[in-house]
From TrEMBL:
HAMAP family documented for this protein: Xylose_isom_A
Molecular-function GO terms, alphabetical: magnesium ion binding; xylose isomerase activity
Cofactor: record remark: Binds 2 magnesium ions per subunit.
Record localization: Cytoplasm
Designated gene of the protein: xylA
UniProt keyword terms in alphabetical order: Carbohydrate metabolism, Cytoplasm, Isomerase, Magnesium, Metal-binding, Xylose metabolism
Organism: Poseidonocella sedimentorum
Protein name: Xylose isomerase
């Protein structure tokens, strides 16, 4: 045992507790729509923000002092020790990592691989001793200066090769640890200026990279899901995986729409000019919904601030779309969220996750109540009821412009607008949140 979380006991569901280190709404065994709450939400802790982030921002350096900060394997193992102690306190069923979060950076690819393999074995022992499972692993192909112009889309084939080799080792690590998914997180797959960019070439490179990932998944027998995380404007100005629709277009172009799904982050949805529920609903409609990163932005900053969720109505609308789509399969709710740089204490890290889990629990229950009530779905069905007629269906299956124009003329069709009733629907949602 380390001393970092000394004196902090595992959190319990205690709605009336006076202490802030307790769950007031998250009860993992509570049954919601016939399923345990834990099994609906499938919470995961992000290794990078919880244990690797140092508390810096663009105008100031590290504010956190953690005993595991450093670049040795001993410190990486200490970080893992502390991580699993926090997992025991929170009791969440999953965690997620990038390779650079769990292993020190080596002098070259070979040393990176040795470091990764050693720490994966160490983490595997902790998982076998009763720790949480791995929701997904991923490779960091954006922080090191070698990736300043991207990985898959880099103009230098050696960087492409280094990135592909790194993904292979991370897929191996994820497979070895029994991960439910593998995520491709293209933080710099885009461009800054067209003056030095060949869009067609970079697009083809990205498509081949994705195809190789899928090929390797099947070769090693990884039965998890490959996920792409849409990334608008962060940090590359013109990002190739801007939003769910953009990702789907890429997958469709390269014949991967049945092989790859999306991991959607709330903060990224906002940066793309969408709502979180829009991106989830779009992914579900296209058949590529996989998993989510649950966080929020500061709406005054215009940047992805990765704050823990605290807005129940927003979260409820997101979970409504997830439940409406049938819930998660291999995915889950990962807290891609970090403390504010002034929140220095170990207890702050526990309280942040506990509060976020409570917010999600409240949102899930509100979403389930809306779905059970059925009012929204009834009104949605009524709005489109006209499409159930024979004539309407014929327009979609065998209609032509000529035949439709003939019917409009023959039947003197002259439709009047029908209210969308948005305010009444918003009032209906407010009954539950």
């Amino acid at each position: 045992m380390t001393a970092f979380f000394e004196g902090i006991a595992p959190l319990a569901y205690a709605p009336d507790a006076g202490d802030d280190l307790a769950f007031r709404h998250y009860n993992p065994d509570e049954i919601v729509l016939g399923k345990r709450m834990e099994d609906h939400l499938r919470f995961a802790v992000a290794w990078w923000h919880s244990f690797a982030w140092e508390g810096g921002d663009p105008f100031g350096g590290r504010t956190f002092e953690r005993p595991w900060f450093g670049s040795t394997m001993d410190l990486a193992k200490l970080k893992a020790d502390v991580a699993f102690e926090m997992f025991a306190i929170l009791g969440q069923p999953f965690f997620c990592f990038h390779d650079v979060d769990i292993r020190p950076e080596g002098a070259d690819f070979a040393e990176n691989t040795r470091n990764l393999e050693e720490i994966v074995d160490y983490i595997g022992e902790k998982m076998a001793a009763g720790g949480p499972k791995l929701l997904w692993g991923t490779a960091n192909l954006f922080s090191h200066r070698r990736f300043m112009s991207g990985a898959a889309t880099n103009p230098d084939p050696d960087v492409f090769a280094f990135g592909a080799a790194t993904v292979k080792t991370c897929m191996d690590a994820t497979h070895k640890l029994g991960g439910a998914n593998y995520v491709l997180w293209g933080g710099r797959e885009g461009y800054e200026t067209l003056l030095n960019t060949d869009l067609g070439r970079e697009s083809e490179q990205m498509g081949r990279f994705l195809s190789m990932v899928v090929e390797y998944k099947h070769k090693i027998g990884f039965d998890g899901t490959i996920l792409i995380e849409p990334k608008p404007q962060e940090p590359t100005k013109h990002q190739y995986d801007y939003d769910v629709s953009t990702v789907y277009g890429t997958l469709k172009r390269f014949g991967l729409e049945n092989e790859v799904k999306v991991n959607i982050e709330q903060g990224h949805a906002i940066l793309a000019g969408h709502s979180f529920e829009h991106e989830i609903a779009t992914a579900a409609a296209l058949g590529i919904f996989g998993s989510i990163d649950m966080n929020r932005n500061d709406y005054q900053s215009g940047w992805d601030t990765d704050q823990f969720p605290n807005n129940v109505p927003e979260v409820a609308l997101a979970y409504y779309e997830i439940l409406r789509a049938g819930g998660y399969t291999t995915g889950g709710t990962n807290f891609d969220s970090k403390l504010r740089r002034q929140s220095l204490d170990p207890a702050d890290l526990i309280a942040a996750h506990a509060g976020a889990m409570d917010v999600c629990a409240r949102g899930l229950k509100a979403a389930a109540a809306m779905l059970e009530d059925g009012g929204l779905e009834t009104r949605r069905a009524a709005r489109y009821a006209g499409w159930d007629s024979v004539e309407a269906q014929e327009m979609l299956t065998s209609g032509t412009l000529e035949s439709i124009a003939e019917r409009v003329t023959r039947e003197a069709i002259n439709p009047a607008p029908v209210s969308g009733q948005q305010e009444r629907l918003e009032n209906w949602v407010n009954r539950f949140v």
